[in-house]
Amino acid sequence: MNLRLHKEFFDALHRPDAVSGLTHTFYRYPARFSPLFAQAAIRAFTKPGDTVFDPFMGGGTTLVEASALGRRCIGTDINSLAVFISRVKTTPLSEGDLLAVHSWTAEIMDRVNMRKPPVRAIDWADLGYQRNISGKSTWPIRKAAELILANLGGLDTEEQRQFARCALLKTAQWALDCRTHIPPVKQFRGQFLRYLKEMMDGARDYADTLRRLAFRTDRFEHPLSLCVHRPVAGIEGEVKLAGFFPPRLILTSPPYPGVHVLYHRWQVRGRKETPAPFWIANTVDGNGASFYTFGDRKRRDLGPYYENLRAAFSSLARIADENTLLVQLVAFSDPAWQLTTYLNVMEEAGFKEMAPQGAANSSDGRVWRRVPNRKWYALQKESQPTAKEVVLFHRLA
Question: What confidence tens digit (pLDDT) does each residue in 51-87 have?
Fold first, then answer.
């Protein structure tokens, strides 16, 4: 089967632009793909009113772009942190909401005073969610975050509070994740204010986009977005999604075989991991890294990975029809053998690969791209990290 790709799609795939626009900068989720690529794929393969589904939604890039283009969008993920972020990014805020957050911002900085008594999150600390952020250099950031969280009650609605949590999550990630030197609290406070303003501007643009779409269609007031916390396997029985399927486009980036991506932790002061993002987002973790990556990368045959992949895509085949196009970005620690196995599993699950016409840039007839500034932990210690991805196109066999 063949698929003709237009130049616009190919150009968007290879553009090195930084992630920006709408609500895309609300959080730096690992392994997110370009909004330009998502936008190009949605424009190329769907029309307004169609359903776009991302079964591994991560930071919600597909959902934001789909809703902004007038498509109904659904996303699922097993990571509760991903669900929190995607819901915040796809929840339109009114001007009244944004004014309320702005007013709260003017008051909150007076309350984030390190001389004030701490408001310890005892329950979260006892469960280990503040691990590695209570040391000599990190405890001031932890205390500042606790003071901000303790004052979320000054906001009127849950949507406003979730928005503020996300701003704090973004700031704490900036202050703690992959940093050798932790910034002082004064700098943390200033960055929190800057991020809040930046996010309010993005939220306003997103809400304005949805409002403009409402005047262009009488099918719905604004594009419907739904984020569900669940695995892909068994999705055909999910009651919440009844009436949405079959989707016209499944656009996603699944966990990569043999590639270690830390979806659920921050790395503090070197490689000390902390589950603090779940505490800030008020959501629960409880699973090891292999849970989020389909299996332990140390298994050289990647057996558990491919078993989970087969189960997930078998369920996707059950909610698809002959009009559904599956587009995915995938990277491999060793594509020489992993790509072949991956495609065999896809076929076993019920999907047949389509050969792109007019855009292939490799001798294998596929579209590959190199992602700038991305580092992976590969399957073997002696392997070189790779940031090369392939775009795979499938329809039901």
Answer: 999 999 999 999 999 999 999 999 999 999 999 999 9
Distances in whole angstroms, Cα of residue 126 to Cα of each of 121, 266, 277, 311, 365: 9, 19, 15, 36, 54
Contact (Cβ atoms closer than 8 angstroms) between residue 21 and residue 10: no
Residue 293 Cα to chain centre, angstroms = 14
346-382, pLDDT tens digit by residue?
Answer: 999 999 999 887 666 777 888 888 775 555 444 444 3
Measured distance CA(22)–CA(232) in Å, rounded: 27
Domain range list for the chain: 2-91+222-258+293-396, 95-208
CB 170 within 8 Å of CB 27: yes
Instruction: Write down the CATH number for the domain with range 2-91+222-258+293-396.
Output: 3.40.50.150
Evaluate if pTM is beyond 0.85: yes
Name the maximum alpha-carbon separation found in the chain. Answer: 67
Letter for the amino acid at 93?
L
The number of angstroms, rounded, from the C-alpha of 67 to the middle of its chain's C-alpha atoms is 15
Query: Rounded CA gap, 309 and 293, in Å?
Result: 10
Write the CB contacts of 137 (distance below 8 Å, at least 6 apart in sequence).
181, 182, 269
Q: How far apart are CA 93 and CA 205, in angstroms?
A: 10
Exposed / middle / buried, residue 105 (Cβ in 10 Å: 0-12, 13-18, 19+): middle
Is-contact 177 269, C-beta < 8 A?
A: no
- DSSP H/E element including 204: helix 185-214
